[in-house]
Amino acid sequence: MKRSLTLAAALAAPVAIFGAGIAHAEEIASVNTNFRFTGSDRVTVEAYDDPLVEGVTCYVSLARTGGVKGTLGIAEDPTEASIACRQVAPIKIAQPLKQKTDVFSAGMSFIFKTLHVVRVVDTKRNTLVYLTYSDRIATGSAKNSVTAVPMPEGTTIPMK
Q1: What pLDDT is stored for residue 99 in this prediction?
Q2: What are phi and psi of 102, to 5 degrees?
Q3: Backbone angles phi, psi at 93, to 5 degrees
Q4: According to the UniProt entry, where is the signal peptide (predicted)?
Q5: Contact, 132 vs 106, CB < 8 A?
Q6: Tens digit of pLDDT for each residue in 143-158?
Q7: Exposed / middle / buried, residue 100 (Cβ in 10 Å: 0-12, 13-18, 19+)
Q8: What's the pTM value of the predicted model, to 2 decimals?
Q9: Residue 133: beta bridge partners?
């Protein structure tokens, strides 16, 4: 199931944004973690393709709050998240990459909390490193997850 979110939807639901464009998240699966009559809490696994690195997909697991607030999109999701990025096809890099850049972000509350995924280029090891963490307007979280995608032999990461 693919979804695109507009600005209006961004105010009412979790958002995923790649750079300046709109991201397409594909929910791979979800499992219920806490039953509620009005909608269970769950953990979802979503796939996001890196917009500048064709052939790399990041799988992000996120805790999602259920209940009435979760259904309306106004609940604050827990900070827990995990990431695993993998080469899923031949790698093609569309343009030179910055050493560090936000690849995408996802809203974890109505306005105040955001999950970030940052791509870091490790030029010495010719590897793309992806880091996920969350922040809040007032406070962030030290909870984070990291994964790496080494480039195939003969592929060099072009840098800005």
Answers
A1: 97
A2: -70, 125
A3: -100, 120
A4: 1-25
A5: no
A6: 789 999 999 999 999 9
A7: exposed
A8: 0.72
A9: 116, 144
User: Taking Cα atoms as reference points, which of 80, 70, 82 lies closest to residue 14?
Assistant: 70
**CA-wise closest residue to 95 among 130, 121, 57:** 121
Say how far apart CA 115 and CA 64 lie, in whole Å: 12
Reduce the DSSP state of residue 138 to 3 states and report it: coil
Q: Phi and psi (nearest 5°) for 36?
A: -140, 145
Instruction: Note the pLDDT of residue 113.
Output: 61
Report how far residue 110's alpha carbon sits from residue 153's, in angstroms, rounded to the nearest whole number: 44
Each residue of 86-134: pLDDT tens digit?
A: 999 999 998 999 999 998 876 655 555 677 889 999 999 999 999 988 7
Residue 20: pLDDT over 90: no
Summarised one tens digit per residue, pLDDT across range 72-82 is 455 555 567 78
E strands, the chain, are 2-3, 16-18, 21-22, 25-34, 41-49, 53-64, 81-93, 100-107, 113-122, 127-136, 144-150
152: helix, strand or coil: coil
